[in-house]
C-alpha cells in the first residue's frame, strides 16, 4: 500500500512519515521549545479558536445535540488556557527517547543496548472533546512521534483552528512540516487510517465503546485499545465496614462518566453490613440492580440481568451481586470484566493475595478506590488513555508507552 | 464471540482459557518440573514420535516435496534429543512472571507495583519444522501461558504425537489439562484463530513471508509480527577494508536461509576497495545483483531492479548499490528495509551516530555482523522469533516478551 491508495489521508500520512524521520532525531530541547511556542500561540490566538468553536457549538445545538455533549464540545477562555498549561506541563516530563532500557556487554565483547525510540506515525481517533487535539499532539511530539489526528465532524472547525495554531508555532520553533495533521472528519477517513499499514505505525482510539470496537476489529494497523472499564469492587468477608463503604462510594460516585469508575459491587455472603452498604449507595443517589440476595438486603433494588453484569453504566447505576466466596468473585470478574481496574476491600492477607493473583486486569486495587487507575494519580504526568489490552502497554499510557525500542549492538569487527 | 462460533478451535481455546487461569498462578518450580518431565517423556517415547514423523516424511516425499523441505520436516533421534535439551534449558532461565518492572510509593502513601503476568492464551502458527511444536509449548508454559499450536498439515502426524507426549507428561507433573493443544491443520483453523478475539490473547506467526502477511493483515487478535528480514550492510567511506569484508561475508554467507542474514550491500561511493569486496563475495559463491556503479566495479554482476532491493533472497544472492553518502544509505533502508537488522561498517564516530539515529529497525549493528540479532546471541536464552513490529516487543522475543503487566495498587482505605 502506498499513499496514493488513500485519497483522504495519504498525503498527510506521507508527510507525517517524512516528518517522523526528522522528529526521531531531534534533541529534547527543540521539542520542548516547540511545546512552549505552541502553548503561547494558543493563548495569543485564543480568539480564533473560540470563534471557530462557537460556530461548531452553534451548529451542533441547531442539530439538537444534547447539552451534555455540547458541554464536552465547548471551549472557554479558561479551557483554552487549561490545554495550553497541559502543553507546558509536558516540558517538565522526562523525554523517553534515548533512554537505555537494558544494556550489557556480551561474553564476546559485543556491547548491547536496548534504546527507546519513537513509534513513528501515531493515528489518534477521538470524539467531541477538542482538548484531545492539543493533548494528543503534545504527547506525540514530546515522544518524537508525528500525529495524525482524526476528531469528530462536530468539532471540525475547532480542530482545524487548533491545528493551524499548533502547526504554525511548531514549525516556527523548528519542528518539521507535517509533524501534526488534522485528517478530514469524513467517516471514510477512519477506514483509510485503519488500513494504512506501513504508513501509520499505531492507531489509538479515544472515545466510547462503539468507536473502540470499530477500531480494534477493523484495523490492519496495530492498535492500542483504550478505555472501556467495566470495573468491580469486591468486598471480602474480612473487610472493614467503614473502609468498604468509603471505597465503594468513591469508586462509584466520585465521577460516574469515566472508565475507572466502578460498575458492579461483588459482596461476600458473610458480609453482615451489606444492608448498610446498599443504604449508603442509595442515599448517594445510586440506582441499584441486584441479584436475589442483594434485593433481600435492601428495598428498592431492581432485579439484575446478565445485561447489568455486562454494562459499563457510566451513570449513577450499580449492579450488586452476592458471591459465595472469593473464587466466585474471580469467576464473575473473569466472565464479565473488561480487564481495566478491579478492587478488593479485605483485611485477610490470603484473600488479598488470591485476588491479586487471580484477577487478569490492567490494575488491581487493594483497599483503594478504582478511581486511582490514572496516569496523573500514578505520577506519570499526562496520559493519552488507559490501555485495556495486554500487548505493548497495559494501564495508563504515558510518554514511555508512546515509544518502541531498538537494540544497538556495537562491535569491533565481530562475526559469527 | 464465544467458543461455539469456532467449530475447529473453539473447544481447545475454551480449555486453554481455563488452563491459563490456573497457569498464571503456578509457582516456577511446578512449571520447571513439568518441563523436565516433558523432556524425559520425549526421550522415553521417541520411537512413537519418530514413527509418526516417518509417516509424514513418506507422505510428503510421495507428494513430490523437495528435499530441502523434507529435511526441515524430518526428525532423527539426535533432533528429538535436541528439542528435549531445549526444554531442559528453559528450566535454567529466570521465570519472568512476578517480576516487578517498576515500583514506587506515591505521595498519598499508595504503593504502586507494575508486575509481570502471563499474556494468557498464545496462538502460534508455523510451518514444517516440528521442533517449533516443542519449543513453542515450552516457552509458553515457562512464561505461564497456554499454547494453541497450529502447525502445517505436512507435519500433522508428528505434531500430534509430540503434543500427546508433552501434554501427558505435563498433566502428570501438575499442569492443568488444556495448557497445550494442537489445532487441526485445516486452512480454516488459521482463520478461526485469527478471529478468536477474547478467546486468544495474541497470535504469533513463525514462518515465511506469505504466512506472516496473511496473519498480520487478517487477524482481529493482536499479533506479534516476526521474521521477515530484508537486512542491509552499509559500508561507509571510513570503513576498514578487512573488517568490511569479514562482516559483509559473514552477514551474507554464514547461514543464508535465516531472517538475520544480509540481502543488500550498500557502499559509499568513496570506498576504494569495492572491487575487492565484490570479488570476495563472488569467490564465496554469491550471485551479485548491482546498480551501474557496482557492475562497473566487478565483472558478472547482474543488473539490479527494484525487485532486488525489495527481495529477502534467503539464498546466496546479494543486491549491491553504491550510494553518494550516508543519507543516501538511510533513504534506501527507509524505503526498502523490513525493520529487522541494519549494519554499518565505519570508523567515523559521526557516521556511526548518524546511522544509529537514522535507522528505524529492531536492531542496528555497528561493526558487527547482522547475524548477531538473535535471542541466543543476545544472552536471552530461547527465543520464539524475532519481532519486526514496533508495539510490545521488537527484536528477539524471549520469555519476558511473552508476558504482560498488571499494576497492583495497595492502599489502606484510599479514596479520591
UniProtKB/TrEMBL annotation, chains A, B:
One annotated GO biological process: L-proline biosynthetic process
Catalysis performed (reactions): L-glutamate 5-semialdehyde + phosphate + NADP(+) = L-glutamyl 5-phosphate + NADPH + H(+)
CDD domains from the UniProt entry: ALDH_F18-19_ProA-GPR (cd07079)
One Pfam family hit: Aldedh
Pathway assigned to this chain's UniProt record: Amino-acid biosynthesis; L-proline biosynthesis; L-glutamate 5-semialdehyde from L-glutamate: step 2/2
EC number: 1.2.1.41
Gene Ontology MF, one: glutamate-5-semialdehyde dehydrogenase activity
Domain spans labelled Aldehyde dehydrogenase: 10-284
InterPro entries in alphabetical order: Ald_DH/histidinol_DH, Ald_DH_C, Ald_DH_N, Aldehyde_DH_dom, G-glutamylP_reductase_CS, Glu-5-SA_DH, GPR_dom
CC terms in the record's Gene Ontology section: cytoplasm
Top-level enzyme category: oxidoreductase
Keywords tagged on the record: Amino-acid biosynthesis, Cytoplasm, NADP, Oxidoreductase, Proline biosynthesis
Cellular compartment(s): Cytoplasm
Role description: Catalyzes the NADPH-dependent reduction of L-glutamate 5-phosphate into L-glutamate 5-semialdehyde and phosphate. The product spontaneously undergoes cyclization to form 1-pyrroline-5-carboxylate.
Family: Belongs to the gamma-glutamyl phosphate reductase family.
HAMAP family found in the cross-reference section: ProA (MF_00412)
This protein's name: Gamma-glutamyl phosphate reductase
Amino acid at each position: 500500500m502506498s499513499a496514493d491508495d488513500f485519497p483522504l489521508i495519504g498525503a498527510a500520512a506521507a508527510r507525517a512519515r517524512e516528518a517522523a524521520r526528522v522528529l526521531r532525531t531531534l534533541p529534547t530541547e527543540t521539542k520542548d521549545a516547540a511545546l512552549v511556542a505552541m502553548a503561547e500561540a494558543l493563548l495569543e490566538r485564543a480568539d480564533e479558536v473560540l470563534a471557530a468553536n462557537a460556530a461548531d457549538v452553534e451548529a451542533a445545538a441547531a442539530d439538537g445535540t444534547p447539552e451534555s455533549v455540547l458541554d464536552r464540545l465547548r471551549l472557554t477562555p479558561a479551557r483554552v488556557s487549561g490545554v495550553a498549561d497541559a502543553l507546558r506541563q509536558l516540558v517538565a516530563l522526562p523525554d523517553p527517547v534515548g533512554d537505555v532500557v537494558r544494556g550489557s556487554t556480551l561474553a564476546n565483547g559485543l556491547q548491547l543496548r536496548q534504546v527507546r525510540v519513537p513509534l513513528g506515525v501515531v493515528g489518534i481517533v477521538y470524539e467531541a472533546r477538542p482538548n484531545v487535539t492539543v493533548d494528543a499532539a503534545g504527547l506525540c511530539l514530546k515522544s518524537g512521534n508525528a500525529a495524525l489526528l482524526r476528531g469528530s465532524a462536530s468539532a471540525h472547525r475547532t480542530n482545524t483552528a487548533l491545528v493551524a495554531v499548533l502547526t504554525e508555532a511548531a514549525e516556527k520553533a523548528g519542528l518539521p512540516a507535517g509533524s501534526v495533521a488534522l485528517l478530514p472528519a469524513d467517516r471514510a477517513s477512519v477506514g483509510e487510517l485503519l488500513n494504512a499499514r506501513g504508513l501509520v505505525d499505531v492507531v489509538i482510539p479515544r472515545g466510547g465503546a462503539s468507536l473502540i470496537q470499530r477500531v480494534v476489529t477493523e484495523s490492519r494497523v496495530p492498535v492500542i485499545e483504550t478505555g472501556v472499564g467495566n470495573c468491580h469492587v469486591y468486598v471480602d468477608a474480612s473487610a472493614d465496614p467503614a473502609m468498604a463503604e468509603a471505597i465503594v462510594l468513591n469508586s462509584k460516585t466520585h465521577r460516574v462518566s469515566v472508565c475507572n469508575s466502578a460498575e458492579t459491587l461483588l459482596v461476600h455472603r458473610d458480609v453482615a453490613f451489606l444492608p448498610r452498604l446498599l443504604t449508603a449507595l442509595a442515599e448517594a443517589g445510586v440506582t441499584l440492580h441486584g441479584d436475589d440476595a442483594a434485593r433481600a438486603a435492601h428495598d428498592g433494588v431492581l432485579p439484575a440481568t446478565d445485561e447489568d453484569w455486562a454494562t459499563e453504566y457510566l451513570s449513577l447505576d450499580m449492579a450488586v451481586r452476592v458471591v459465595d466466596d472469593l473464587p466466585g468473585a474471580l469467576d464473575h470478574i473473569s466472565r464479565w470484566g473488561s480487564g481495566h481496574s478491579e478492587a478488593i476491600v479485605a483485611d485477610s492477607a490470603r484473600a488479598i493475595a488470591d485476588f491479586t493473583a487471580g484477577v487478569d486486569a490492567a490494575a488491581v486495587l487493594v483497599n483503594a478506590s478504582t478511581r486511582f487507575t490514572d496516569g496523573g494519580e500514578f505520577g506519570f504526568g499526562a496520559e493519552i488513555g488507559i490501555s485495556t489490552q495486554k500487548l505493548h502497554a497495559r494501564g495508563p499510557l504515558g510518554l514511555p508507552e508512546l515509544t518502541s525500542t531498538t537494540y544497538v549492538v556495537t562491535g569491533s569487527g565481530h562475526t559469527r
